[in-house]
Design goal:
The complex is a heterodimer. Chain A is an alpha/beta fold. Helix content of chain A is 28%, strand content 20%. Chain A has two domains: 19-230, Rossmann fold; 256-268 and 277-340, no CATH class. Chain A is globular. The longest helix of chain A is centred in the middle third of the chain and has 18 residues, at 195-212. Chain B is an alpha/beta fold. Helix content of chain B is 32%, strand content 22%. Chain B has twelve helices and twelve strands. The termini of chain B are far apart. Classes of the chains: A alpha/beta, B alpha/beta. The interface between A and B is large, with 51 and 49 residues.
Chain lengths: 359, 342
């Protein structure tokens, strides 16, 4: 019973992945006995040492995915697999060894830290819960963690209100790392922080990952930020994945019109920003009354009749590359990242495929 | 008829280059600090001119004083904060010392404001129409029917679908984007000379933010506007000119092109380097070390010096906002264009 997660026999899921969701479906009860489809048939996998970014707007279901992977929501369908073990229906006790290796960082460091607790108590709580060791060992570990996240040792004796937002998020990261997890889920880890502080936390996560080789699932609404930090990106719309692939390809060669629109909508502080803009009309539809056919068709600039009735499947279009659109690649992206001078094309992308080179 | 006062060099220079509508001169807003000898200066000697038809971006992080500057313009600095120095003039008329009855006319009539959170800016228990109509009837001499018609027109102008029905609707029935459109309609309905938008798109999703920025670009192209934002990218989308604020002070001003392509103040340089941009080279982000001064800190000299890579001993003196290579920068060691590539 000590370590079933590492057992070689009876492994399920894809061997490559450390954390995996298979056809995950999460619904909530809405008023009037209706169903709110928060997450519908999403599959994802995070390899050891890899960073996967889950992007979407509010209501896209990205945070529900995170919480469901942490087993905070019960999925209606699908499986959650951690290190070859199906953890979808494990009970509290069975889940303990998994929890220790799968940790989470939340969005708001003001509400995720108990204001009355000392930082030592905040960071050592998971250590105590998992019977890490003696008091001295715990204190040593707290000191080590504070150093890892760039805080002074005397921070342990203070309370959260004595720290700024960025420092609090460092404390939250230290707590999540306390048990040496092999996977970390970060839900909007920087969106409540000021711009000049965001980069500190992003770089901290990148450095920690390089050093500790954790698998990282980043959930964020900011495509530029997710591109910056992730190896692969999954774009969600109304509870469903619409596009996924290596970061540079999703951002550089977006295939789904929603990804194209999201790219176009992200304000970038650069001079001469006379790029083409695709502004979507309307709001995202309700996850209770979802449109038929393609969920995106009411807002899609290139929707055809087929999109109103037939739901496009998430189709494999290349290595690690998937898109759910009948007319994938037909909406021209607002910017051509590969057109940047002196940038070698990544393997698999041919120069001939570059659109709008002569404009 | 011309303004005789020439208190700041900037005022004299800009007077020639356009029709100044709003002029802020050496504005200081302070909040008492219990138990400390000095008060907290939320806004510290801020001066600027807003010209006819210009969109001016006020960019800064939380605590930079950008919102407090905007609130000062409307005379709504929250107590116990107070304007203790400086002047605000709207077309040669001082508006910082007006009695409340006259300030009410300024708000809405002369200056319209769009707040960040439309849910708190709108009354949740009254329908959209009645809020628009009330505003019209308070500021314009019109009948109820005419006011209703103007309200309908206002909603139509900001791109709200089926505006007639929406007049009867309540704020909670609207999506975030539509609510913000109602807020904009409310700010515009009395045709104010100046519009202030305080983080008007911050609470919105990216695709909805793009819609609102589009609305600003199309419908408010010739409006005189102050856009307050923490997001340099948003400012880049619609502003003509930018003022960067840090710790209650303006640290740099310039046209949007100037500030983005050759920032002079190390803080602006740092801010731009800290933001992820779509670039397949994915250069590592360069964070600004440390944190901005808080309301408890006593700031001496340059407020950015403790976080600045280029700080030297003379930075313990406060640098004035002054011209350097044709731009206004408050720094003893501004970066020049040739140093940008490093």
């Amino acid at each position: 019973m000590t370590d079933t997660t590492g057992a070689t026999s009876g492994r399920v899921g894809n061997d490559e992945y450390l954390l995996e969701a298979e056809n995950l479906r999460v619904t909530f009860r809405a008023p009037g006995g209706r169903k709110l489809h928060a997450v519908d048939e999403i599959s994802l996998g995070v390899r050891p040492r890899e960073t996967v970014g889950l992007v979407g707007e509010s209501g896209s279901g990205k945070s529900t995915v995170a919480l469901t992977l942490m087993r905070a929501h019960e999925p209606e369908g699908g499986r959650i697999i951690y290190d070859g073990q199906d953890i979808t229906h494990l009970n509290y006790k069975e889940l303990m060894p998994v929890r220790r290796r799968l940790q989470m960082v939340f969005q708001d460091p003001y509400s995720s830290l108990d204001p009355r607790w000392s930082i030592r108590r905040v960071i050592s709580e998971p250590l105590k819960a998992h019977k890490f060791g003696t008091r001295q060992q715990i204190n040593d570990r707290v000191a080590e963690l504070l150093e890892q996240v760039g805080l002074p040792p005397d921070a342990a004796n203070r309370v959260p209100s004595q720290f700024s937002g960025g420092q609090r998020q460092r404390i939250a990261v230290a707590r999540s790392l306390a048990l040496q997890p092999s996977a970390l889920i970060a839900d909007e880890p920087v969106s409540s922080l000021d711009v000049s502080i965001q980069a500190q936390i992003i770089n901290l996560l990148r450095d920690l990952q390089d050093r500790l080789h954790i698998a990282l699932l980043i959930i964020a609404h900011d495509l530029a930020l997710v591109h910056q930090i992730s190896d692969r990106i999954i774009v969600m719309y109304l509870g469903e994945p619409v596009e996924e692939g290596p970061s540079d390809e999703v951002v550089g060669r977006p295939q789904h019109p929603y990804t194209v629109a999201l790219l176009s909508a992200t304000p970038i502080p650069e001079a001469g920003g006379d790029r083409k803009r695709i502004v979507l009309t309307g709001d995202p539809p309700s996850p209770i009354f979802r449109p038929n056919g393609c969920r995106f068709h009411p807002r899609c600039p290139i929707a055809q009749d087929r999109c109103k009735v037939e739901k496009p499947p998430l189709k494999v279009i290349g290595p690690n590359r998937k898109v759910a659109c009948w007319f994938a690649g037909q909406l021209e992206p607002p910017r051509d990242l590969w057109a940047l001078e002196n940038v070698p094309l990544p393997p698999g992308i041919e120069a001939a495929k570059r659109p709008s080179q002569n404009t | 008829m011309s303004v005789a006062t020439e208190s700041v060099a900037d005022a004299a220079r800009t007077a020639a280059s356009g029709d100044t509508i709003l002029s802020v001169n050496e504005l200081v807003v302070e909040f008492p600090r219990p138990g400390q000898p000095t008060d907290f200066r939320a806004v510290n000697s801020v001066s600027f001119n807003l010209r006819q038809g210009e969109t001016l971006g006020l960019v800064g992080e939380s605590g930079s004083g950008k919102s407090m500057t905007a609130l000062s313009l409307l005379g709504i600095v929250p107590a116990p904060g107070k304007i203790i120095e400086g002047s605000i003039s709207l077309r040669d008329r001082r508006i910082d010392n007006l009695p409340v009855s006259q300030l009410r006319r300024v708000r809405g009539n002369d200056i319209g404001m769009v707040f960040q959170d439309p849910m708190t800016g709108l009354n949740p228990v009254r329908n959209v129409g009645s809020q628009l109509i009330e505003s019209v009837m308070r500021h314009q001499r019109v009948s109820k029917n005419e006011a209703t018609e103007l309200a309908f027109q206002a909603l139509d102008d900001v791109g709200i679908p089926s505006p007639r029905e929406r007049l009867e609707g309540y704020p909670h029935e609207l999506s975030g984007g539509l609510r913000q459109r109602v807020m904009i309609a409310l700010a515009l309905i009395n045709h104010p000379e100046v519009i202030i938008a305080d983080e008007a798109t911050t609470a919105l999703d990216a695709t909805i933010q793009a819609q609102i920025l589009d609305l600003f670009r199309e419908r408010l192209a010739s409006a005189t506007m102050i856009l307050i934002t923490h997001d340099m990218g948003v400012a880049a989308e619609i502003c003509d000119r930018i003022m960067v604020m840090y710790a209650g002070r303006i640290v740099e001003t310039g046209t949007i092109e100037e500030v983005l392509s050759s920032p002079r103040h190390p803080y602006t340089v740092g801010l731009l380097a800290a933001v992820p941009k779509f670039d397949i080279r994915r250069p590592k982000l360069v964070p600004i070390p440390g944190i901005p001064p808080t309301a408890e800190d006593i700031v001496r000299g340059c407020p950015f010096a403790p976080r600045c890579r280029f700080a030297e001993t003379d930075c313990d003196q406060r640098p004035p906002l002054d011209y350097s290579e044709g731009r206004m920068v408050a720094c003893w060691h501004p970066r020049s264009a040739s140093e940008q590539s490093k």
